[in-house]
Amino acid sequence: MTVTTTTALGRPTSALGRSVNALGRAGTWWIVVALVVIGLVGVSQFGSATNLQNLLRQGSALGIVAIGQTLVILTGGMDLSVGALMGLVAVLANGTMAGRPENIPAAVAIAIVAGLAVGLFNGTMIVKTRINPIILTFGMLSVLQGLIFVYTDKTVGSSPPEFQALAYGSIAGIPTPALLCAVILVGAWALLRYTGFGRYLYAVGGNADHARRAGIPTGRVLLATYVLSSLLAAIAGLVLAARLGTGYTLAGLGFEIDAVVVVVLGGTALTGGRGGVIGTLAGLLVLSMVNNLLNLLAVSAYVQQVIKGVIVVAAVAVSGIAEHNRRNQR
Amino acid sequence: MTDVPSAATATRAGVRLPIAPARIGLVLAIVGLCLVAGWLSPGFLTPNNLLNVVRQASVVGVAAIGLTFVVLVRGVDVSVAGVITVVATIATGVMNGSDANIPLAVAVAIVLGLAIGTFNGLLASRGVHPFILTLGVGVALLGLTQLFTGGTSLGNPAPSFRSVLNARIGPVPVLAIVFFVLAGIAALVHGRTTFGRRIVLVGANPLAARLSGVSVNRYVILAYATSGLTAALAGLVLLARSGPPSNFTGMGLEFQALAAVILGGTSFAGGKGGVWGSVAGALAMALALNLVNILGLPFSAQQIVQGAVIILIAAAYAAVRKESAGD
Amino acid sequence: MTLLASLALALAACTSTASPSASSPAGGGASSAPSSAPSAAASGGAGGGAVDVEKSCPTPDAEKAAAAVDTAKFKTDGPWTLGVSAGYLSNAWVAFNNAYVSYGASLEPRYTSVVRSDAGFDVNKQVADIEDMITKNVSGIIYWPVDNGALSTVLQKAEAAGIPTVNVANGFSDQAGITANAQIDNYINGRTAAAKLVESLGGKGEIVSVLPIAGTNSATLQDAALKCVLGLYPDIKLLDTQNGDWDTAKSKTITEAWLQRFPKIDGVYSPSGQMSLGVAEAFDEAGRMDEVTFSPADEYNGWLKWIAAHPDKNSGLSTFPTSVGKTAVEVMTGILDGKATTKGTWAGAEYVAPDAAAKLASPERPDDWWPNDLPDSFLPSK
Question: Does residue C11 form part of some domain?
């Protein structure tokens, strides 16, 4: 395959190979820019204030949960239980509120508790038994989805308008959920960049054995990471609850995979130790804009699914091959 | 997730371990499940029912056979559900209600499976992360299926295809025989051929493999091709057992197959594990679900039990492995 | 807590007092409590028999469906753009329903374009799809939901923007945001199936029940109808209820488990033909076909072929026609013309006797097919 023919030093010799490398390094932001240009120029209504606001609202819940997923993936793991947890929170919150604003604090409290409990369980199991995170969180996905059905077998509860403001309100023209997502993003970025915890996280992801030998408390770092992931999923679940206005049992289905896709599109490596939340933001923008543009262009639904699969494969192929080349250069 | 091979692993590479204590644990778990179920429900321990459970496990089980090879080389393949759906749908179309088309349909299925698997393998061997790669491929395949069929299936399967494959010889379902024969072939390939030994080596210690002249890339590609092949065969099994699938039928199969492989003792660390383990894993899960059905538990209980079984058994393995590895 | 709610619903159904749904306020579509009166389409003696099932188990929402809709505010001249938001397109029934919507739109020249979306059973995507249609300023939105309750907020937005919404084939709902409905009465289908089944069994025996995806309007209403009819026949015992999810393979697996648990099953309540097919196969493979009677189901081609081949197991049909998609377009046209429109327009749920049922089968077509009068260019498959 000419793409990866390399010189003795491991640098790609072909133009294609060099382009792949460049693309991988520059990251997904190029695609974000391209999509914005295509949208503004080629698709009417894309640039309208309403559409842009819709876009931000549509992507907020996914953005919040994807930030948490970024942390987990940075450690070399994956959290497949977040979608079901979001669904559980959406159902519990709406069921608790039952349309009454005075129940909002209780609903939020239940969501936080659920997030903490699941995160502690996940983290403890992974640290103490060394069970593979994909398998553990996949098992939890089943358990949580089952718990939803224990609680109710049909759509339940409702959100009072005060709570729905979380999804549909605006502050200074910017949709509230997007602001929430932005705040969390900045917080996560600062955590990764400026705190010891952030440095430990990257170290554990890069090489857990070395990290341990260097004295880093890898067990506690992993535990904290999974707790953060579940907490953020719980918050995303509250946003979801507000957006839907009612507790639909299958509401969370698929968020876990979408979150992983967004993180990977953003350039964070699934093997751990490289990447960050700014990349995740790029991945989120790409996915949201692709969905929005395809809808505005009235592309057939079946074709949309194929396109999305192709984008995911292409994006990860480009970044994976670029990474491969980079490794070969060392 | 991916461990750097240490010196200790390098010396163990290629040596056939005796049955690991963890594997015995799984067998005991299966026997235990059967006993509990038999006590709770008189109809459970009849040969008819037990063999039916084997047949129910056959779709996931056949897919898990090839998937084992992928996990052995430290990869993962979650495109399995997409392959099963696409193959079952296209095979139905090719058969178009006529027995004469069966050989062609089977050939098309096999070629499709190998092609998709090879595609996955080519990219995976070039450093593309297999989880997202195969996920995207699976999603694209499901979309393509819907595109072709417009939501309905393309035709009717050949009458003999279903009536022969879905029949029983005495009390034994033909599909159970097919399942075990495929598993047997794969186990032989794994344990007794050069191909099998090299797959194990590539997974356990890719550095040593390269140094001894084995092309890591080639065997990774072959492993994924094998997984594509068995996924296609699983699609044919599905078609035989329950007719042409809807898009929902395949949902979740890729994770069930992965769970079967992991439960069977094959680990992502590479090199360890085997086909019979995956078979046992698939059987264990089918047994657990059958038990839940028989007890008449509601849908929610089934999901919880499935999740709990996966977590418990996988955690047990991981704990045992941790102790024996002396970390 | 929801078990009590379901029990309450079932009881309410049998006492035929109009009471609004007490349990799930926003989930109007999924759990409307039955209220009153006859349904126009329930011809053909749904229920017949000594016990007057029709009177004791009245279809819910008939009164609400007859209410008038204020269409003046939606009146607009053509040309019109029709928005079609599919909750999912992944089974044969919705594929044909979708084709009928397209066909219906083609018959009315004022629809100059159709904008389609498919949410792939993802409710979040459907909310986004409808938001995007509002952005595109469609004239009206016909949709079938992943879940009606979850769409209420965005549908209200559509109406506020002057875009009427028509809920098709998911049962009736008067929840805020839905301008009108074109629906098939799952309750009547269920009631007919239950009544015919217990009649065939002579009022005595043990049955099992196969329902669609848990939580859907179909599942809820079919279950309620069964429970109401069973309340009238105390000698019939319901052994178990499971969800076959409109999937033949899953229905087969469920039945295999039942066959192990229960040494004798006299009857199967399954108003959906796609599921009945899986159930029947399981009985057949177990060699226990002789002991069981099937309820009437719908006109899924796989089931039609099966009952044509097994006349002694043919109990007729209670229809679930895919042409309701065309009805939805007609309702939408009426609204856009500002004409008098009722909140709900019924279609289907008609009893078809066994002989006529067998004749409906199309043997050369796949199982995944529905009887239709669509022109070739609109048929879903290639």
Answer: no
Q: Which two tokens stand for residue C165?
A: 């919404």
Which residues of A fall within a CB distance of 8 Å from C152? 245-246
Same domain, C191 and C154: no
Q: Where are the alpha helices (DSSP H) in chain C?
A: 2-15, 53-56, 62-66, 92-107, 123-135, 148-160, 186-200, 217-232, 248-261, 273-285, 301-309, 324-336, 354-359
> Under an 8 A CB cutoff, do C240 and B49 touch?
no
Q: Which of C8, C51, C5 is nearest to C234 (CA)?
A: C51
Residues of chain A positioned with their CB less than 8 A from the CB of B136: 261, 309-313, 316
C-alpha to C-alpha distance for B236 and B231, rounded to whole angstroms = 9
* DSSP string for residues in A75-105: TT---TTHHHHHHHHHHHHHHHHTT-GGGHH
HSE-up (13 A, CA, CB side) for residue A57: 29
CATH number at residue C223: 3.40.50.2300
Are C80 and C144 part of one and the same domain? yes
* Domain end point (choices C320, C338, C364): C320
Distance CA A119, CA A113 (A): 10
The verdict on residue C258 lying in a domain is: yes
Q: Which residues from chain C sit within 8 angstroms of residue B49, using beta carbons?
A: 260
Token readout for A208 is: 């857990």
pLDDT of residue B288: 80
Range of the domain at C214: 185-320
Tell me if chain B has a CB within 8 Å of the CB of C240.
yes
- Count helices and strands (H / E) in chain B: 14, 2
**Could you count the other beta carbons within 10 Å of the beta carbon of residue B195?**
15
CATH of domain B20-325: 1.10.3470
Query: Which of A61, A164, A244 is closest, CB to CB, to C150?
Result: A244
CB contact under 8 A, A146 and B300: yes
Give the neighbours of chain C: at least 3 Cβ pairs within 8 Å: A, B
Q: Are residues C340 and C298 in the same domain?
A: no
Which of A55, A57, A154 has the most C C-beta neighbours within 10 Å, making it the best mutation to test the interface with C? A154
- C154 and C196 in a single domain? The answer is no
B248 touches chain C (CB under 8 A): yes
User: Per-residue pLDDT tens for B44-84?
Assistant: 777 877 888 898 899 999 999 999 999 999 899 999 999 99
Contact B59, B84 (CB under 8 A): yes
Percentages (nearest 5) of helix, strand, coil residues in chain A: 75, 0, 20
Domain co-membership, C202 together with C90: no
| pTM (global) more than 0.90 | no
Query: C27 to chain A: nearest residue by CA?
Result: A155
For A:83-112, CB contacts with C below 8 A are: 94, 98-99
Q: What span, in angstroms and rounded, lies between the C-alpha atoms of A200 and B223?
A: 35
Asked if B246 has any chain A CB less than 8 Å from its own CB, the reply is no
Whether B130 and B121 have beta carbons less than 8 Å apart is answered as: no
Question: Is residue C354, in this structure, part of any structural domain at all?
Answer: no
pLDDT per position as a tens digit, C281-333 = 999 988 899 999 999 999 999 999 999 999 999 999 999 999 999 999 999 99
pLDDT score of A21 more than 80: no
Helix or strand or coil: residue C45? Answer: coil
- Whether residue C198 sits in one domain with residue C312: yes
Q: Is the ipTM of this complex over 0.95?
A: no
Cis previous bond, C79, omega within 30 = yes
Where are chain B's structural domains? Answer: 20-325
Residue C97 lies in a domain: yes
Residue A311 has pLDDT above 90, yes or no: no
Mean pLDDT, all residues of chain C: 84
- Whether residue A261 and residue B299 make contact (CB cut-off 8 A), yes or no, is no
A157 CA: distance to closest CA in chain B (Å): 19
A249 touches C at CB < 8 Å: yes
Interface contact flag, C364 B293, Cβ < 8 Å: no
